[in-house]
Design a protein that fits this description.
About 35% of the residues lie in helices and about 30% in strands. It has 12 helices and 13 strands. It has helices at about 5-10, 55-60, 85-90, 105-115, 120-130, 145-155, 175-190, 200-205, 225-230, 250, 275-285, 300-310; strands at about 15-25, 30-40, 45, 70-75, 90, 160-165, 195, 210-215, 220-225, 235-240, 260-265, 265-270, 290-295. Strands 5-6-7-3-8-9 form a 6-stranded mixed beta sheet, with helices on both faces. Helix 9 crosses helix 12. It is elongated and about 75 Å long. Mean pLDDT is about 90; it is low at about 1-10. The structure holds adenosine-5'-triphosphate. Adenosine-5'-triphosphate binds near residues 25, 48, 51 and 55.
Length: about 300
């Protein structure tokens, strides 16, 4: 376990503090009192539906947007007032428009490395991100995935203590995504704090120590991935095709049942471990066989849909 992680588990210090953050565009409030604290050495995820206010929130952390109200501190700095100092401690994934089309990959890495007092050797970083064969390619000629990997390299080359990654692996193929996850885990294990905006549940579940689910500009939940899954209305999902008619009211009366859905003679219940036991007992008493019985745990995706009402 890294030093930073064990410190965190012992109640480490917050390196990013966001308190009652508010931001409106043209009179429309898109960030409405967001608060969270990111502790040193953790990967903190921000998850939410499109337009929830995630990018606006992290851009306030990066000092790219000025909050209307609330307080943001990054390594004790005010991101707007102390922007110059912040640039030395915070690495951020660039937006595409911010890099000169004619720069080669090598030039971009050298240029960014030269901006920091103690940069990483960019060659192993480029190698790790699969860019070694593209060092002389101009930015404009890179594929979407290669640009994305270059942005990740540029965010890390200054050896920042804090990294903000917005849509880290969007546009990457499954292999590159996995490699990038391993790189981010190594970065975290070296003590770096990572703030990660993502749409990928698998990414959030694998990488994040804690996640803030943001919906309509507010924090809907803040917990570990396992904690969020545990909050899902039905943490266990049971489905089967009964061999004889089954009265829905008897299923609904079982302990812990959160929902029941029928399709083509097959029933799917969301509930708890206790629901599984009760279903088996009910079926046994009625001498009913459960054909193609499947029992699975709810996923972060289920929790996300419950929390954000994203199916509304
Ligand atoms: N500069 C701007 N001017 C006006 N409205 C904006 C501006 N930037 C963002 N918005 C609006 O604010 C809302 C929140 O946007 P934001 O990009 O923060 O959401 P998000 O959660 O990151 O969304 P996504 O997942 O789609 O990237 C959206 O409705 C967006 O259209």
């Amino acid at each position: 376990m890294s030093r930073a992680r064990s410190e965190r588990e012992a109640g480490g210090m917050s390196v990013i503090e966001v308190s009652e953050l508010r931001k409106s565009y043209g009179g429309r409030t898109v960030v409405d009192g967001v608060s969270f604290a990111v502790e040193e050495g953790e990967i903190f995820g921000i998850l939410g539906p499109n337009g929830a206010g995630k990018t606006t929130t992290v851009e306030c952390v990066e000092g790219l947007r000025v909050p209307d109200a609330g307080r943001v501190r990054v390594a004790g700095l005010d991101p707007v007032a102390d922007h110059g100092k912040l640039a030395l401690v915070l690495g951020a994934q660039l937006q595409e428009s911010r890099l000169q089309a004619k720069l080669t990959v090598r030039e971009a890495l050298e240029l960014y490395a030269a901006c920091y007092p103690n940069p990483a050797d960019w060659r192993p970083l480029a190698e790790r991100l699969g860019l070694s064969g593209r060092l002389d390619t101009r930015f404009a000629r890179l594929s979407g995935g290669q640009k994305q990997r270059l942005f990740i390299a540029l965010a890390l080359v200054g050896r920042p203590g804090i990294v903000v990654l917005d849509e880290l692996t969007t546009g990457l193929d499954p292999h590159a995504r996995r490699t990038t996850w391993e790189l981010i885990e190594d970065v975290r294990d070296s003590g770096v704090t990572v703030l990660l905006v993502t749409h990928f549940m698998e990414e959030a579940q694998r990488l994040c120590d804690r996640i803030a689910v943001i919906d309509q500009g507010r924090v809907a939940a803040l917990d570990t991935p396992a904690g969020l899954v545990g909050r899902s209305a039905g943490a266990t999902v049971i489905s089967f095709t009964p061999s004889a008619p089954l009265d829905e009211s008897r299923l609904a009366a079982l302990p812990g049942v959160a929902s029941i859905a029928w399709k083509d003679g097959r029933v799917t219940l969301a509930g708890t471990d206790g629901t599984v036991d009760a279903v088996i007992t009910l079926l046994a008493r009625g001498h009913i066989t459960a054909h193609q019985l499947r029992v699975s745990d709810a996923t972060l995706n289920d929790a996300f849909l419950d929390l954000t009402g994203a199916d509304r």
